[in-house]
C-alpha cells in the first residue's frame, strides 16, 4: 500500500524552492512599477512652476494646492478599494489593471487644456496607482523565502529613490529644452511611459500561490509554485499543499476585531504621521528652494542630490531589518527624522540647508523601507492586501492634508510647519514601538499572530 505524502505548509514549500531568478525578476518588475509610481506621485512638485506659468496660478493659490493634493486624494480611494478587491479576486488581476489605468490617466494629464481637466486626470492617476502599493508588497512578501523577506521588501521600497532620481533628472533636462509653460506637459507624458514597460513585464507573473490557496484553488497554487521552481532550478516537493486553517470570510471590519484592532490602529497612525511629514516637506521643497532665490535648474539639481541621499538610507535599513529587527529599525529611523526636522529649522546657510535636507531624505526613506517590510507581515493572508490598503489609505489621507500644511513653508511659518512634522515623526515612533510584535524570521501568518509575538 502506497503511503499518502504528508501535506506541506506553503511557507515550507516556498522556503524549499529558495531564492533565485524568479524572486529577482519579480523584484525588478515590481520595482520598475514602484519607480514609475514615485515619478507620478512626486512630479507635480516639479511640474507646478510650469503649470502655474501656463494657467496663470499664483504661488500658494488654492488651485496650486489642489493640484498637489489631487493625486494623493485619488490614492486614498484607490488604496482602500484595490486592496480590498485583491483579497477577493486575487493579486494578479489587480496587479495588471492598476498599472494599465495609471498609464492611461497619466498620459491624459499631459494633454489637459485647463486646470479642471488636469485635476481630474491627476485624481484618476492617483486612484490607479494607489492599488499598486498593497498588491505589490503582498505579492513580494508571499513569494520570497522567510529568511530574505524583510530585505526584499526594503529593496522594493528602494526603487522609490530610483523614481525620484529619474523624475528630478527628467525635470532638469526638460527645463533646458523648453520653457516652463511647455516643459510640464512633456514631463507628465514621459513619466507615464515606464508604466507601459511594467505592464508588459507583469504579464508573465502568476498569481500569488498563498492567495490562490486561501481561495481554495490548490491546483493553481501548485502551478504557480512549479513556475517558481523551474525559474530557480529547484524541485517542488511531490506532496499536496497544506490548506490554511478554516476561517470566516474576511471583511474589512475584521481589521478592527480581536488582536488586529490595536495593531491596525497603531499602524495607521504610523503611516499617517510619516506620510504627513514626508510629503509636507518634500512636495513643497522645490517651491521652497525656488522661493529662497535658486534658479529652476539649481532647484532640480538639489532635489536630485537629495534623492541620491535616500539610497544609503535604504541600504542600511535592508541590513538592520534582518540584524536588529523591523520594529527597532523603524523606530530608530523615525527618531532621526524628528531630529532632522529641527536641524533643518536651525539651518542658516545654503550648505546647512542641503546637509539637513539630505539627513531628512536619508532618515525618512529608511523609515519607509522598514515600514514597508514590517506592515505586510503583521496581517494574515486573507486580510493582507486589505490591511495594506487601509493603512496606506491613511497615508494617502495625510498626503491629501500635507500640501496645505506644507504651504506654511512658503508663507514664512517655517517653525510651525517643521515643529508639526517633527511631532508627527515622534508620535509615529511611539506608535511603532507600541505595536509590540517583532516579525523578523517568522513565517507569514495565515491567522492572527499572538499579541506578544510568540
From TrEMBL:
Transmembrane segments: 26-46, 66-86, 93-111, 117-140, 152-174, 186-205, 265-286, 298-321, 328-347, 353-375, 387-410, 416-435
Keyword terms: Membrane, Transmembrane, Transmembrane helix, Transport
Domain named Major facilitator superfamily (MFS) profile: residues: 26-440
CDD domains reported in the protein's UniProt record: MFS_SV2_like
Compartments where found: Membrane
SUPFAM superfamilies assigned to the protein according to its UniProt record, in alphabetical order: MFS general substrate transporter
Protein name per UniProt: Niacin/nicotinamide transporter NaiP
Organism of provenance: Deinococcus aluminii
Phylogenetic lineage: Bacteria, Thermotogati, Deinococcota, Deinococci, Deinococcales
Amino acid at each position: 500500500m502506497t503511503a499518502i505524502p504528508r501535506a506541506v505548509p506553503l511557507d515550507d514549500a516556498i522556503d524549499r524552492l529558495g531564492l533565485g531568478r524568479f524572486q529577482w525578476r519579480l523584484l525588478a518588475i515590481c520595482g520598475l512599477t514602484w519607480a514609475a509610481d514615485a515619478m507620478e506621485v512626486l512630479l507635480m512638485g516639479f511640474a507646478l512652476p510650469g503649470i502655474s506659468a501656463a494657467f496663470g496660478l499664483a504661488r500658494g493659490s488654492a488651485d496650486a494646492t489642489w493640484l498637489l493634493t489631487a493625486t494623493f486624494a485619488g490614492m486614498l480611494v484607490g488604496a482602500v478599494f484595490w486592496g480590498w478587491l485583491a483579497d477577493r479576486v486575487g493579486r494578479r488581476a489587480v496587479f495588471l489593471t492598476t498599472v494599465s489605468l495609471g498609464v492611461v490617466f497619466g498620459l491624459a494629464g499631459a494633454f489637459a487644456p485647463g486646470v479642471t481637466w488636469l485635476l481630474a486626470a491627476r485624481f484618476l492617476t492617483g486612484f490607479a496607482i494607489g492599488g499598486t502599493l498593497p498588491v505589490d508588497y503582498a505579492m513580494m512578501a508571499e513569494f520570497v523565502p522567510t529568511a530574505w523577506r524583510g530585505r526584499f521588501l526594503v529593496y522594493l521600497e528602494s526603487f522609490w529613490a530610483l523614481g525620484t532620481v529619474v523624475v528630478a533628472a527628467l525635470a532638469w533636462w526638460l527645463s533646458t529644452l523648453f520653457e516652463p509653460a511647455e516643459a510640464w506637459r512633456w514631463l507628465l507624458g514621459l513619466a507615464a511611459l515606464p508604466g507601459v514597460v511594467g505592464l508588459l513585464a507583469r504579464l508573465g507573473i502568476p498569481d500569488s500561490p498563498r492567495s490562490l490557496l486561501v481561495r481554495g484553488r490548490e491546483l493553481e497554487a501548485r502551478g504557480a509554485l512549479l513556475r517558481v521552481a523551474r525559474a530557480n532550478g529547484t524541485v517542488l516537493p511531490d506532496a499536496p499543499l497544506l490548506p490554511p486553517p478554516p476561517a470566516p470570510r474576511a471583511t474589512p471590519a475584521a481589521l478592527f476585531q480581536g488582536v488586529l484592532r490595536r495593531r491596525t490602529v497603531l499602524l495607521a497612525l504610523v503611516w499617517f504621521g510619516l506620510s504627513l511629514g514626508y510629503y509636507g516637506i518634500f512636495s513643497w521643497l522645490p517651491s521652497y528652494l525656488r522661493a529662497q532665490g535658486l534658479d529652476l535648474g539649481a532647484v532640480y539639481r538639489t532635489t536630485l542630490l537629495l534623492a541620491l541621499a535616500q539610497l544609503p538610507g535604504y541600504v542600511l535599513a535592508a541590513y538592520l531589518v534582518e540584524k536588529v529587527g523591523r520594529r527597532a529599525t523603524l523606530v530608530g529611523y523615525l527618531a532621526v527624522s524628528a531630529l532632522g526636522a529641527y536641524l533643518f529649522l536651525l539651518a542658516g546657510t545654503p550648505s546647512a540647508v542641503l546637509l539637513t535636507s539630505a539627513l531628512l531624505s536619508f532618515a525618512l526613506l529608511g523609515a519607509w523601507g522598514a515600514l514597508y517590510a514590517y506592515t505586510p507581515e503583521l496581517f494574515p493572508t486573507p486580510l493582507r492586501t486589505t490591511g495594506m490598503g487601509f493603512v496606506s489609505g491613511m497615508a494617502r489621507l495625510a498626503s491629501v492634508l500635507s500640501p496645505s500644511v506644507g504651504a506654511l513653508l512658503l508663507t514664512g511659518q517655517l517653525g510651525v510647519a517643521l515643529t508639526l512634522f517633527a511631532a508627527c515623526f515622534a508620535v509615529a515612533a511611539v506608535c511603532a514601538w507600541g505595536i509590540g510584535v517583532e516579525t523578523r524570521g517568522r513565517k507569514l501568518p495565515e491567522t492572527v499572530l499572538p499579541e506578544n509575538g510568540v
